[in-house]
Amino acid sequence: MPRFAANLSMLFNDAPFLERFGRAAAAGFKGVEYLFPYDFAPAELAERLAEHGLSQVLFNLPPGDFAAGERGIAALPGREAEFRESVDRAVEYARALGCPRLHAMAGLVSDERQRPRMREVYLENLRYAARRLAEHDLTLLIEPINTRSIPGYFINRQAEGHAILAELGEPNLRVQLDLFHAQIMEGDLTVCFRRHQAGIGHIQIAGVPDRHEPDLGEVNFPYLFALLDEAGYDGWIGCEYNPRGLTEDGLGWFAPWR
């Protein structure tokens, strides 16, 4: 049966962040993910997880200046030292929270002429991060993101991510399959999943095209959930969507798996 994790950066967003853990557990979620933990002490977050019997399944490495529009630094030339520091900081939190996987955001392409150099930096940084995480039995994730949600993001299609996996060959490097991004960029989700299943380390969902609950839009999520079960996918599915209203009022889709 699929295991669903509430993305606390987006769900239950009518409450202060630390109160969302209890709301997620009360709604029937067993796992949580979110963008970043760094505004809170690791012990404070670990206490919330333990109090509500939740697993921390994913969060991102520090992304640079997120408030100023940066969306990761892993592919940005000249930021290599900062990236290595971000890896160490994320590992500290992951160990405290028992989180087995971390996502490294690539960053934005400001000048297409720099893309070849960015790819070199990206691969160098990913190799470093994967080996650093391997010391603690952690998995590193990369995620293709659609060009509508984040224009200029460095990688956009699943095939790009899996080509990087093949090139680096790091055993703890995986690709995050966000079905929302994949549907917008390429569709054919069943074939996409089957083609890349071996390299997929985490899955996320949201309704397409408006990123609301996965019960409205152009994707047949019950079919895809059954497909994941049939294929033996045993990872988590992160619910990374913007609720149309109160989160609990939109969880009818979740009832069969609660």
UniProtKB/TrEMBL annotation:
This is Hydroxypyruvate isomerase family protein. GO terms for molecular function: isomerase activity. Belongs to the hyi family. Keywords: Isomerase. The keyword Repeat does not apply. Residues 22-255 form the Xylose isomerase-like TIM barrel domain. It comes from Stutzerimonas azotifigens. It holds the Pfam family AP_endonuc_2. It comes from the Bacteria.
